[in-house]
Amino acid sequence: MASRRNDRYDIYDDYEDEREAARRRLECRRAASGAQSASSHRQAPAASERQRSRSRDDERIDPLSRSLVGAPASVLSDGVHIPRPVIFGAGILLLVAIFAGVSAIERACTVQEEQPAAMQVDTGDGTAAPEGQPSAQADFSLLPADTPADVVSALEAKADDQRVVSIVNNAQGYVESFGAVSAANLIKLAAEDDEALDFVAGVLDNYPAASAAPIDESAKKGVVPMFYQWDTRWGYVDYCAGPIGTTGCCPTSLSMVYAGLTGKTDKSPADFAAISTQNGYAEDGQGTYASFLTDMAGSFGLQCEKFTPTTQNFLTYLESGYVVICNVGPGDFTDSGHFFVATGLAEDGTVKVNDPYSSVRSAKTWDPERIANQSIGMYAFRA
User: Fold this and answer.
1) Domain holding 366: CATH number?
2) 160 and 254 co-located in one domain
3) What proportion of the chain, given as a percentage, has pLDDT over 90?
4) Is 183 helix (H, G, I), strand (E, B) or coil?
5) Residues 6+ positions from 289 with CB-CB distance below 8 Å
6) Do the record's keywords include Transmembrane (predicted)?
7) Does residue 372 sit in the same domain as residue 258?
8) Residue 284 covered by a domain
9) 3 state SS of 291
10) How many Cα atoms occupy the beta-carbon half-sphere of 298 within 13 Å?
11) For the ranges 41-45, 235-239, 284-288, 342-346, which has the lowest average pLDDT?
12) How far is 243 from 229, CA to CA, in rounded Å?
């Protein structure tokens, strides 16, 4: 027990020695602190002057540069010293890098915005392939084997026209859709009449059309306008189990006569085709009965006289100011039956015609006897 008490006292004595040593160290630090405080008071004016000088230097720096370099400088001044010119130079370099990056982004955006789109060529009538795309080639071996040589030659002469390429390469489609005879007529029409190419090239996709577009041009009373039955405004409408473009010569002829004698354009070929069908004058696969002209003319404000198709009768009516619809059989105008309008006489005594199926035949005048000799019937109109 005594041994343990002596140990405690020895420990206590050691603790007292340590406290005394700590007290002496504290007094030494207080004395040193007092001397340093007095020295600080003596140096304050000089430090204040240096601080004011530093503030003036900071004011000479661009505000943006100060905002970039001021904070790091104040932090580093308490540790590692970096010369102010170095910090200022680093700030300038950073600004240059930022502006260079922004300029690069703007240039990239500008290039992207000004990059031209792939050129699109509006071919309008479809005569050429779009730029950058290879043109399709016509395979004339696809035409029906019995296609006449002159028809093939005419198509070959227009082989660069993409509409012709489409017609030739889809020849079997015409046969399947319209039968061999009608397909042959369509292909022949494309070969003979450039103005009908749009219609023939588009008929597979557009027939039968649900409705027709109206006549959008004006008519002058006393002047018979030129309407084509294969005009795409109405040519795809169904009539007599086929498109008006191939079966609607009679209603198209009557539409021209009506517009020319009345000056009205409220009835298109499709309208007259519908009237013919509704009143029983149209037969599928056959066409329009000629009696449609005499029976229905009065309902349109017209007078119609049927006469025997002799050359003399024909000339008499034309010289008297009548407009004559001619119904012809096989010959110069058709291989079966066809209607067209004789609009008057040329100065040389030949007959001017508006053939709804052919811009080629409409572009020239005809010998009245030749027309009379091919006619089945003739119908003279006036208002």
Assistant:
1) 3.90.70.10
2) no
3) 65
4) helix
5) 281, 282, 283
6) yes
7) yes
8) yes
9) helix
10) 4
11) 41-45
12) 9
Output the pLDDT for position 30: 59
On the 0-12 / 13-18 / 19+ scale of CB atoms within 10 A, 353 is: buried
Per-residue pLDDT reduced to its tens digit, 18-77: 556 556 665 665 565 555 544 444 444 444 444 444 444 443 334 333 333 344 433 333
Domain-embedded: residue 170: yes
DSSP codes joined into one string, 318-364: HHTT-EEEEEE-SSSS-SS-EEEEEEEE-TTSPEEEE-TT-HHHHTS
Residues present in the chain in total: 383
Output the CA–CA distances (angstroms, integers) from residue 98 to 91, 105, 107, 280, in the order listed.
Answer: 11, 11, 14, 85
316 and 376 share one domain: yes
Tell me the three state secondary structure of residue 299.
Answer: helix
Among 190, 206, 222, the domain-final residue is 206
Residue 320 lies in a domain: yes
Between CA 73 and CA 79 the distance in angstroms is: 10
User: How far are the Cα atoms of 145, 217, 242, 269, 353 from residue 214, in angstroms, in the given order?
Assistant: 39, 9, 20, 9, 23
Q: Same domain, yes or no, for 304 and 173?
A: no
Q: What is the dihedral of CA 9, 14, 15, 19, to 10 degrees?
A: 140
Domain encompassing residue 77: 63-97
Distance, CA of 103 to chain centre: 36
Residue 48 lies in a domain: no
Question: Domains in the chain: how many in total?
Answer: 3
The pair of three-digit structure tokens given for residue 216, joined into one six-digit string: 């959008």
Q: Quick one: 172 and 267 in the same domain?
A: no
Q: What is the pTM of this model?
A: 0.68
Alpha-helix residue ranges (DSSP H) falling in the chain: 2-60, 63-76, 84-114, 149-156, 162-169, 171-192, 197-206, 244-247, 249-262, 269-278, 291-296, 311-319, 359-362, 368-374
Is residue 129 over pLDDT 90? no
How do residues 182-230 score in pLDDT, each as one tens digit?
Answer: 999 999 999 999 999 999 999 999 999 999 999 999 999 999 999 999 9
